[in-house]
Known about the structure:
The protein is mostly helical.
Amino acid sequence: MSETASNSIAKPDMKNPVHLLAFGFGSGLAPKAPGTWGTLAAVPPYLLLAELPLLPYLAIILISFVIGIYLCGRTSEDLGVHDHGGIVWDEFVGLWITLIAVPAGWQWLLAGFVLFRIFDIAKPWPIRWADKQVSGGFGIMLDDVLAGVYAWACLQLAVYWLG
């Protein structure tokens, strides 16, 4: 089922805190490109997280990932659609992974945003494999975590060469 078709069939209950978080505080309800809007909605929390030392930042990402498995899995079950296009909590975590230990500055934030979206959309191996083969909340989270790791590696290379 296409992302657009799944968005028009299954509607989340935004009064349900699980759905609210899974849908990125409503950003996943965007009629076009909900993943991009979800990634954009992940920026304000990132700006708060970026003030933390590295270990607490990493701990929050890990906790967000584990919670995301539940949020995405439960919402997917409630809606009856695996990986509904509006579920964007995985984009939040993927972007936060991308931006681990990047220098301060809007240029690095923008570069991380763009790199993450490229890898999340293009899904090079093994991201596409994970997207197709791993189910449930873990599967919903895994492909974005992998996209975040790919984008992080590219961003760190850019920091090394350009920074």
